[in-house]
Amino acid sequence: MINGGHVILYSRDAEADRTFFRDVLGYPHVDAGGGWLIFKAPPGELAVHPTDGTPAQEFYLMCDDLAATMAELGERGVEFTGPATDQGWGLLTGIRLPGGGQLGLYEPRHPIAHALPH
């Protein structure tokens, strides 16, 4: 029935962010036409959190070793939103995108779901 998910990141400079995902993060991609790149995302999982405010969506990249990942990405010129912080459920920072947005980046300390069988 459902065979995948499609995440959309809205950007003030989509071309710069596409270049970032292609050249800096090295994500495999297809060209849907006219340079409109669609990237293969790493395995993912979905969590539903309660809120008293306006419902929203967020996108986080996950890694096994946040310090090592930050060091490697830093060598590629990636700018972070701040130092890693311990949130209890994991170590967290953020990546600044060239188009003005940001993505969360964290090392989970909770059980992960993306390796579960279908």
Automatic annotation (TrEMBL):
Domain of life (superkingdom): Bacteria
InterPro entries in the cross-refs: Glyas_Bleomycin-R_OHBP_Dase, Glyas_Fos-R_dOase_dom, VOC_core
Pfam families: Glyoxalase
Domain VOC: 3-108
A Gene Ontology molecular function term of the record: dioxygenase activity
Protein known as: Catechol 2,3-dioxygenase-like lactoylglutathione lyase family enzyme
Keywords: Dioxygenase, Lyase, Oxidoreductase
PROSITE patterns in the cross-refs: VOC
